[in-house]
């Protein structure tokens, strides 16, 4: 999560950009941090009341929740960008599990203790949906979606994407450029129209927020959009604006376009107003890294924050809710001091989760290590397969498992 981008070569027959297995998209890693920071600001404005000038913070981070759309597009992009592995679906799914579940489990346990402290314990059924990351499949039950560590609802969507990816990837990779463009245009149109299409759910009792924002079947449109985008960029058939123009357009959409949405239709802000901007930004960042053109987002400290952003995303809301419980009875605190204090504590916990949970468990749960553990277990307790005697108690001990270097996605975080 922070190494330099590997060498790239261009296939002269097809004009495709190919990358080595060590290729890095550091600008995308850096962009992850800004997206996570936007979510932090949005949640601080929405869930805390111990500071002054709350309306000012709401104004600045009005579109912060739309960053989840960026993450979903980026997830499909990063997984498709990686060199194709000859691995089974089971191994792919295990890699995804190893990347996100240990951190999720640790923050789930922390959230359970926090809720008990707040006097708001949740039931066993809600806990089971969070432990299995199935909470987004419970329609019209916000207590399930936002229960425990509320931000983990997006991981529930991601797990569905990961389940679908091995079936979708061959179709996307075999698709013609024209078909990929058709997929992108169609899916962008569907995402933008989803607030209006959600009316179709009313007869069966499904509300707009669930259909537009929560339902994995709706959010997978952004994931597949990212997959198609990555394939076009790799083939050299993407000719969108550069990183500076794309960044400015994204800022424009986040600060101007989202404010044009009527207050009665808040979900327009999280999808319709931003999906084009995020698509352009992801592609521009990837192209900048492939071509090694200048990019602010490749600064070393920004890349490191991008590496920590997954953990930051998981811990920040718990810090905000805890701070609100501790401080809301006091006089209003200055906005800047409150913001910096909560941010600093969130970042501190995020770095701890990243360094002591996320990174170690990627190594511990690496497929090759799991295979070695299995072989060791069989040899010790079942005996070798096929011919040969069982291990006797006098046999020398099995060799120590060698350490396995953590593999990392090109963008440095769980996709």
From TrEMBL:
The keyword Repeat is annotated on this UniProt entry: no
Q: Where is the Acyltransferase domain?
A: 26-351
User: Can you list the GO cellular component terms from the UniProt entry?
Assistant: membrane
What UniProt keywords apply to this chain's record, in alphabetical order? Membrane, Transmembrane, Transmembrane helix
Single GO biological process annotation from the record: lipopolysaccharide biosynthetic process
Tagged with keyword DNA-binding: no
| UniProt xrefs under InterPro entries | Acyl_transf_3_dom, Acyltransferase_3
Give the transmembrane ranges. 31-50, 56-79, 100-119, 151-172, 179-198, 210-230, 242-262, 268-290, 302-323, 335-353
Q: Residue spans with biased composition (Basic and acidic residues)?
A: 406-415
GO molecular function annotation = acyltransferase activity, transferring groups other than amino-acyl groups
Where does the record locate the signal sequence feature?
none
Q: Name one Pfam family in it.
A: Acyl_transf_3
Region Disordered, annotated ranges: 1-20, 386-415
PANTHER family the record matches: ACETYLTRANSFERASE (PTHR23028), ACYL_TRANSF_3 DOMAIN-CONTAINING PROTEIN (PTHR23028:SF53)
Q: What is this protein called?
A: Peptidoglycan/LPS O-acetylase OafA/YrhL
């Amino acid at each position: 999560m922070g190494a330099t981008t590997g060498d790239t070569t261009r296939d002269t027959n097809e004009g495709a950009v190919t990358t080595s297995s060590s290729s890095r998209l550091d600008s995308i890693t850096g962009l992850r941090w800004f997206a996570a920071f936007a979510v932090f600001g949005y949640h601080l404005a929405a869930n805390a009341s111990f500071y002054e000038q709350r309306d000012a913070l709401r104004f600045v981070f009005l579109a912060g929740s739309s960053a989840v759309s960026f993450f979903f597009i980026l997830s499909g992009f990063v997984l498709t960008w990686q060199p194709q592995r000859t691995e089974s679906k089971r191994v792919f799914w295990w890699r995804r599990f190893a990347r996100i579940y240990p951190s999720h489990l640790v923050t789930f346990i922390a959230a359970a203790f926090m809720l008990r402290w707040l006097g708001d314990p949740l039931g066993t059924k809600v806990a089971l949906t969070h432990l299995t990351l199935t909470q987004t499949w419970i329609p019209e039950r916000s207590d399930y979606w936002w229960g425990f560590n509320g931000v983990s609802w997006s991981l529930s969507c991601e797990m569905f994407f990961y389940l679908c990816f091995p079936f979708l990837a061959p179709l996307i990779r075999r698709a013609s450029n024209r078909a990929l463009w058709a997929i992108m245009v169609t899916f962008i149109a569907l995402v933008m129209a989803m607030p209006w299409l959600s009316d179709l759910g009313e007869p069966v009792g499904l509300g707009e927020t669930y259909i537009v924002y929560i339902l994995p079947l709706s959010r997978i449109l952004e994931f597949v959009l990212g997959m198609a985008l990555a394939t076009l960029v790799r083939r050299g058939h993407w000719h969108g604006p550069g990183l500076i123009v794309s960044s400015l357009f994204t800022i424009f959409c986040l600060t101007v376009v989202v404010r044009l949405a009527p207050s009665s239709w808040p979900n327009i802000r999280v999808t319709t107003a931003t999906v084009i901007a995020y698509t352009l930004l992801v592609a521009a960042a990837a192209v900048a890294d492939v071509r090694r053109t200048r990019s602010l987002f490749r600064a070393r400290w920004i890349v490191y924050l991008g590496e920590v952003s997954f953990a930051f995303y998981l811990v920040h809301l718990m810090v905000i809710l805890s701070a609100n419980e501790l401080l809301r009875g006091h006089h209003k605190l200055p906005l800047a001091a409150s913001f910096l204090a909560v941010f600093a504590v969130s970042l501190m916990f995020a770095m701890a989760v990243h360094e002591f949970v996320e990174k170690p468990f990627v190594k511990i749960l690496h497929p090759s290590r799991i295979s070695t553990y299995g072989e060791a277990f069989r040899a010790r307790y079942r005996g070798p397969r096929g011919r040969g005697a069982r291990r006797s108690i006098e046999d020398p001990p099995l060799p120590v498992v060698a350490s396995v270097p953590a593999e990392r996605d090109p963008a440095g975080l769980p996709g």
